[in-house]
Design brief:
The complex is a heterodimer of chains A (696) and B (109). Chain A is α+β, with helices and mostly antiparallel strands. Chain A has 19 helices and 21 strands. In chain A, 31% of the residues lie in helices and 19% in strands. In chain A, α7 crosses α8. The chains are: A alpha+beta (696), B mainly beta (109). β8 of chain A pairs antiparallel with β8 of chain B, so a sheet runs across the interface.
Chain lengths: 696, 109
């Protein structure tokens, strides 16, 4: 493994530590006296609208699945690189997208061979600086006033293909970072308002889908140029000193407000171990040992006791990526009423162990880092719910589905064009249940809340798929007093091309990815079904009755479809599918909230009528009695069933100490634990440490 | 004086005890994991997440990776919390509050 480089061309380990706002410059400090309350309010609104317009423009002009459906962060950065204003639901970019900008300021601004001038544009995708994975790419431009840089404007978007050894941006079999495709630190790709065609030719030559690559780059740039115009209008009206000072004031105000909000939480230690069941190519157990220490106006995230790093598996994450996903909770939920920027980190501290898969080093692959990051993020939501309930119960929400189950693919489309991307259903997961309502069905992605999954017809227009179905799946969510929002199941048939490579990225086939809250149940595990040599095409041609119309149907009856049927882990390397082969993927629902026996029977009955709960779950989980034929609700029998179930709990439950005698003798098989570290505490301490450092 | 901590848990500040919010029964010292005062059961996975296939891939967690524990109020039988854990993994002490600070916040000395 390569050690941190100590010469100027190596990765910059110093810059990635600079996640919090830079110290205030003299110009920013002097400008504070210019900023009055009302002017500042108007400025914030205008700057926010500039960013929002930039986000929308990027989406309208882009080509990749993620860009078209909203996986976009558009921001205005200070002249030193801090993100002050951001329009996004991809909140991890609120702290991650600043790193490439700070890199440009540190390395290129004063370098005579690169420099920084009006009309420049810079591109980047090295996940070390973006913190997520290679498929996340960005473009940033400097904005000048009176010959001085006053800010940067940038767009960070997931472009679904980055030239790795497998298509679709995420490399299941990556052994090192050199298997994962483009690794571009911030480089100048344009000057004098012109993109450099030689650089574009190089970038397009290094990915499978050059058309999408180029359109996405140009979409980012076009949106940045429009935003640059708007910013200059503000500067023309208010002056550049006001502008520079106001950007800084937003950051400062955000940090102060975040600390005040944190101070309201009860002091204490909150814990949520997160268990993952894959390294990418292997079924194996891993642990993220999240401990959240809240004291005064600071929250500290600790990861001691997490599983060790795996040098040749893509499940590792850079620490900065983990912190990025923490911002999904902070920006989207806890500090939902504050600007999304890295000023929020003034209230957050962190501590990562040196040898851990949540703190990747050197040449370790990180293609699957998004899975590790969302696994952590769900732990953050669960700790957050326990922290916040005492203050604002309505914001103590169950987790949205977080197992990814995304489908990368690559090949040629039906028009003969190269295509490599991911399917968009990741943006149709169910929301977690809440203290006062069920989770929203097919709500979106918790880390990309302004995205959606688009239309089937749009996908079919330039992707070689025919959708067999895509709709709610009534076994997709966690049960509870309030249930998680339903996810979706979809089936596709490869169509119009001789072959297509299709893989899978996610976790939660062996161990559920999405856990419930306050007694609510987890979303079920997921797996993928594929049928090679399928006769689906002829079944469709003959209008066969009895084909599955949803994921529930698929597993309820004996299949009509024949061929070589395989069920497998949601995480899998790409394999070739021939024309007519089919693939069925569930994108699951949200976590349940509260005791299942407290669910209002009328809600269960309403779900039954809409086929949003299975009759099995209504009877066996919720203990709701109704007539099987006419589905008439029986309140008396329901009450009796529920009383009986509560009584059974008291009969079957053992006192804690007695239960632990037998429980503590169990352990997973050595095969399952081969990447885990010492069991139960990967750091090799005693069992009490695994429980949270308190003797049981 | 009781303060609400979660959907199903209160802390009695004067007695420094975790209590069930549904029925009020005392569970454990507030300085300990409230689960020490609960009844605990391992729930059969097929009863929580029924298999929809005969394969090892079935919408049911793999028992070598994951088990489901539920923590019940010993008095009223409410499920106060659950945990999905690898077999034998210690139960999590998920909320460890600074009790003196909590009492001070609520003016209980």
């Amino acid at each position: 493994m390569k050690a941190p480089a100590t010469f100027r061309y190596g990765r910059d380990y110093e810059i990635v530590q600079r996640l919090r706002p830079e110290p205030m410059t003299e110009r920013e400090l002097n400008a504070q006296s210019l900023i009055e309350g009302l002017d500042f309010e108007i400025f914030q609104h205008k700057a926010g609208m500039v960013a929002l317009e930039g986000k929308e423009t990027t989406m309208r002009l882009g080509a990749s699945t993620a860009m078209r459906w909203g996986d976009v962060a558009f921001g205005i950065y200070t002249a030193r690189g801090d993100l002050a204003v951001c329009a996004t639901g991809i909140y991890h970019h609120a702290v991650l997208s600043q790193l490439p900008v700070k890199y440009i300021v540190k390395h290129w601004r004063d370098d005579p061979s690169v420099g920084l001038a009006e009309g420049d544009s810079f591109f980047f995708n090295d996940p070390f600086y973006g913190g997520v994975h290679n498929a996340d790419m960005g473009l940033v431009i400097p904005v000048f006033s009176e010959g001085e840089p006053v800010c940067f404007i940038g767009a960070a978007v997931h472009t679904g293909e980055c030239g790795g050894s497998e298509p679709g941006g995420m490399v299941n079999g990556a052994k090192s970072r050199y298997d994962e495709g483009l690794l571009v630190p911030p480089i100048k790709i344009g000057a004098n308002f012109l993109l450099k065609e030689d650089i574009l030719a190089m970038l397009s030559n290094m990915t499978r889908d050059p058309r999408t690559m180029m359109l996405d780059i140009k979409a980012r740039l076009a949106a940045c140029r429009i935003a640059e115009r708007r910013v200059k209008e503000i500067i023309a009206e208010k002056g550049s000193d006001f502008y520079v000072g106001a950007l800084r004031k937003i950051l400062q105000m955000t940090g102060e407000a975040a600390r005040k909000k944190v101070a309201r939480i009860n002091d204490g230690v909150y814990r949520q171990p997160r268990f993952m069941d894959t390294t990418g190519p292997d079924d194996a157990l891993l642990k993220i040992n999240l401990t959240v220490i809240k004291k005064g106006d600071k929250i500290k995230l600790c990861f001691d006791g997490s599983s060790p790093a795996i040098p040749d598996r893509p499940i590792n994450s850079y620490f900065q990526g983990i912190l990025g996903l923490a911002m999904v909770y902070f920006c989207g939920w806890f500090c939902h009423d504050l600007p999304a920027n890295n000023g929020l980190l003034e209230a957050v501290e962190w501590e990562f162990p040196e040898d851990s898969f949540v703190n990747a080093k050197g040449d370790m692959p990180v293609s699957y880092a998004p899975a590790t990051q969302v696994a952590f993020a769900q732990g953050m939501f669960m700790c957050g719910a326990r922290m916040i309930y005492a203050l604002e119960p309505a914001r103590a929400v169950g987790s949205w589905y977080s197992g990814f189950a995304v489908t990368p693919f690559g090949g040629f489309n039906q028009w003969g064009e190269p295509v490599a991307d991911i399917t968009p259903e990741i943006n149709a997961t169910g929301a977690g249940a809440r203290p006062d309502m069920d989770g929203v069905d097919a709500a979106g992605a918790f880390f990309a809340t302004m995205s959606d999954c688009g239309d089937v017809e749009s996908m079919e227009a330039d992707r070689p798929f025919v959708y067999l179905f895509r709709n709610f799946f009534n076994n997709s969510y966690g049960h509870g007093k309030f249930r998680g929002g339903s996810g979706v199941g979809y089936g596709v048939m490869v169509h119009g091309v001789p072959w297509l490579a299709i893989g899978g990225m996610g976790f939660g086939t062996r161990f559920p990815s999405t856990l419930g809250l306050f007694g609510g149940r987890a979303s079920p595990p997921v797996f993928v079904q594929c049928v090679h040599g399928s006769d689906m095409k002829s079944l469709l041609a003959t209008g066969s009755a009895g084909l599955p119309h949803n994921m529930g149907d698929l597993y309820q009856d004996a299949p009509l479809e024949s061929g070589q049927r395989t069920l497998g882990h949601v995480s899998s390397p790409p394999q070739l599918y021939g024309e007519g082969d089919t693939l069925y993927v569930p994108i699951m629902g949200g976590a349940g909230y509260g005791d299942v026996l407290e669910r209002d029977p009328e809600r269960v009955m309403a779900d039954l009528k809409r086929n949003m709960v299975t009759p099995w779950a209504a009877e066996h989980v919720y203990k709701v009695a109704c007539d099987r034929d006419c589905r008439r609700f029986d309140p008396e029998k329901t009450r009796a069933l529920r009383n009986e179930a509560r009584g059974e709990r008291k009969r079957a439950g053992k006192p804690y100490a007695e239960f632990m005698v037998e429980w503590s003798k169990l352990r997973p098989s050595p095969e399952t634990l081969r990447y885990y570290g010492a069991y139960p505490d990967p750091a090799g301490r005693d069992a009490a440490s695994a429980a949270g450092g308190v003797a049981s | 004086m009781k303060v609400r901590i979660t959907e199903y848990l209160d802390i009695d500040l004067a007695a420094e005890k975790w209590c069930c919010h549904s029925c009020g029964v005392e569970l454990a010292d507030a300085s300990l994991n409230y689960k020490h005062g609960c009844l605990v059961a391992e729930v059969e996975m097929a009863k929580a997440h029924p298999p929809l296939t005969d394969s090892g891939f079935s919408f049911t967690p793999d028992p070598d990776f994951c088990r489901l524990l539920e923590f019940y109020c010993p008095a009223c039988g409410t499920t106060l919390e659950n945990e999905y854990l690898p077999p034998g993994h210690p139960v999590t002490h998920e909320i460890e509050l600074d009790i003196p600070a909590l009492k001070a916040r609520h003016g209980v000395l």
